[in-house]
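Weekly structure sync, notes
Attendees: PL (lead), two postdocs, one rotation student
Agenda item 3: pending single-chain targets
PL asked that the sequence for the first pending target be pasted directly into the notes so everyone works from the same version. It is reproduced below exactly as submitted, 220 residues in total.
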Amino acid sequence: MKLSYEMVRDNPDVKKYIQKADEMLIALGYTEHSFPHVIRTAKIASWILEQTGHSLRDAELAAIAGYLHDIGNVINRDRHELTGAMMAFTLLNAMEADAEDIAVIIGAIGNHDEGNAFPVSDIAAAVILADKTDVRESRVRNKDNITFDIHDRVNYAVKSSDIRIDRDKKEINLQLTIDTSVSSISDYFEIFLDRMLLCRRAAEKLNLRFCLTMNGQSMM
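Predicted structure, written out during the meeting:
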């Protein structure tokens, strides 16, 4: 069966697992990983492939992988990319999706986390870029903790975040506006350097150069 993003997005079991996964992360004190994050990841991953000349089918598979990428957190944060890929296989197989589509989707999910991530396909590369560039103030839940937790502080300092692709220059640019009275730019690199280097590898998979702009200044 030809799987669609809408079929996965509207599946009640998938919705419940995403909800419960985020509840697990609330208990652990993590930033928001619920529907705003996974929907944004799905949309941006799909948009990246559309902008880089990929087929609409590849863009849709990237959206599905982006929507499901954090589902493994319902089991444990550790190795959630692997458990999430296995959960996605079970769910998509039950929906009678084509084996080739399932393989591409679970490959992207299983390779999205920076601990052992690699852009094994263009779809995986798009999911990595969409996921790792989702840094924003609204992901912070405990605003009373930003003084003590560097992850919350850095996210809270990001007042605007935008991704742009220049097809002529073959560049993908993450443009951030950061309130440096909340968090310094060096704080951002302290916790997100590995993610930005991963974004660089993912962009290279798509024949793009990854650029990072902070407060109008080019950083990468």
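Discussion points:
- The longest strand covers residues 158-166.
- The chain has one domain: 5-218.
Action: rotation student to compare against the earlier draft before next sync.
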